[in-house]
Amino acid sequence: MKVENDLSSASHFPQPAIRLGLTLVLGLLGTWLIPVQDSFAFVVLASHHGPALPAWLTAAFAGVILLHRVEHVKTAVRLFVFMGLILATTLVRTPPAGMYAFLDLFGLAKMGAIGLLLLIAGVSVFGSPVERTASWTWVLNLLRGLALAIASPLLLFASRPRGSRPLSPGSALSGVGFVIFLYALASPLVSLGRDHYPPAVWHFVNVDQIGLICRSFSRWAWLGCAVLFVLAPWPETPRLGGTNSLTRANRIRSLAVVGLVVTVLILLAVLELHAFFAVTLYALLLFATEWIVFALLFMVCPWFKYPRLPALGELAQNAKMGSLCTVLFLLLALIPFALWFSPAIRVLVTGKLFTTPFNLSWVGWTLDQSTIQCGFWRFTALAGMVLAYVAVARWLSDRSSRLGYWAFTAPTIALFICLLSYLTCVSYSLLVYIRTLGFTTLRVFGLVYGLGCYIFTLGFMRWALQGLNRKGGT
C-alpha cells in the first residue's frame, strides 16, 4: 500500500492529549447547545436558527487555532477568511426541514456548503499529497479530506500514549481517556434494543434519555474531531493511503455487482415501474442515513480498496487494543443487536417460523411495519452497521495471542449469528409468500437479493475471521 503523508514538517509537534481534550469539550458543548432528537441528522441544523450553531463552530475554530499554537503550525490568513465564510453561511435562513429531513433540499445545500468549505479550507491551506499531475486532482484531494474527517476518531485513538517503557501516571490516565472516548462514540447503540430491555432496566434507567444523550455527544464529538483533523494537519501514523492498482478479484467483484444492480434496475423500470421507484427511494434513504457507515467500511475492508481512493493504513501492533478492550468494544454492539434480533432468533430456534402461515400484512413498502420489503431494507441497514463495526474492531484489536484471538472471534461470530437469523426469517417469509401466491418479477428479485445477502455476509465473516493465528500473528 502506498502511504501518503499528511504533513512532513519536522517542526510539527503533535499533541494527541490536547486534541482529545478539545474533542471532548466540543462534544459536550454541542450536546448542551443543540441536543439531538430521536431522528437527528446534521441536515436539520440548517433550519436551526439562532446563535447555537455559530457559537459551536466558533469554539471549534478557536480549538483549531489553539492546536496550531501548541503544535507549532502557522495559521494562514486565508484560513481565517474561510472561517468567516463558514460562519456567514450558518446565518443563512432556510425553510423548516419538515418531517423528512433527508428530503430537505435547502438544508442539504446549506449543510453541504458548510462541509465543502471546511474541506476546501483544509486542502487549500495545507495542501494534499495527491500528485498535481493527476487527473481530477482537486476532487481526489477533497475526497481524501472527507475520508480524513470520517476516520479522525480512529486516528485520534491510534495516537494515544504507548510504548515499551512504563508510562507515567499522566500518560496512563490519558491513555485510558482515549479508550473511553472510543467507547463513547459507540455508546448510542445501547438504545437500539430499547423495546427488548427487561422492565427492571427501565425501572432504574431511562434507556431513551440515555440513548439520546449518548447519540448527541457521539455525533458532536465526531464532528469536532473531524474539524480539528481537517484544519489542523496530522502527521502521525496510521495515515491515509491507497492501492496503486486494482486487484483482479476486486475488478471481477465490482463488475459483477454493478452489472447485477444495473440489470435489476432496468428490468424493474421496464416490468414494474412502481417497484423501481420504491427501490430507488429505499436506496436513497439508506444512503442518506448510513453513508458515513458505508464510507468507513470502504476505508477499512480490503474488499473495497481501489486506486487513489483513500484507505486506512495498518495500525501499529503496539497501538492495538488488548483483549479486555476488544471484548468490551464488541459487547457494546453485541448486547443491543442481540436484543433487537432476539425475536428472530427465538422463532428460528423454537421452529415457530416454519409453522406460521402467510399473512397479507407481510406485503407493503412502508418502513414502519414488519413487511418483507421492509425486512430486507432493515437487514441492509443493520448489516452495514454490523459489518463496519466488525471491520473497525478487526483493525483495532490485537489478535496475535490465543486470548486476543478468542476476544475478537467469539463476539464476532455471535454478531453474525444475529444477522443471519434475521435474514433467514425474512427470506423464509418470502418463500412462504411465493408458495401461497406464486411468482412475480419482484418476488424473484427478492430471492436473488436474499441469496446475495447470504453470500456477501458469509464471505465477509470469512474475511473477518481468516488469518487469525492463535499462536501469534495474523
How is this structure best described in words?
It is a single chain. With 474 residues, the protein is mainly alpha-helical. It has 2 domains: 2-236, no CATH class; 243-474, no CATH class. It is 65% helix and 1% strand. The protein has helices spanning 16-33, 52-70, 77-90, 105-126, 137-158, 169-186, 199-204, 207-231, 248-271, 273-300, 323-350, 372-396, 402-437, 441-465; strands at residues 2-3, 240-242, 311-312. A 3-stranded antiparallel β-sheet has the order 1-2-3. Helix 5 (137-158) crosses helix 6. The longest helix has 36 residues, at 402-437. The protein is globular, with a radius of gyration of 23 Å. It starts with a strand and ends in a 9-residue tail after the last helix.
> Topology as H/E string?
EHHHHHHHHEHHEHHHH
Q: What spatial order of strands do you see in the largest sheet?
A: 1-2-3
Rg, alpha carbons = 23 Å
Mean pLDDT: 80
Distance between the termini: 17 Å
How big a fraction of the residues is strand?
under 5%
Taking the sheet with the most strands, its summary is: 3 strands, antiparallel
List keywords for this structure.
474 residues, globular, three-stranded antiparallel sheet, mainly alpha, disordered C terminus, 1% strand
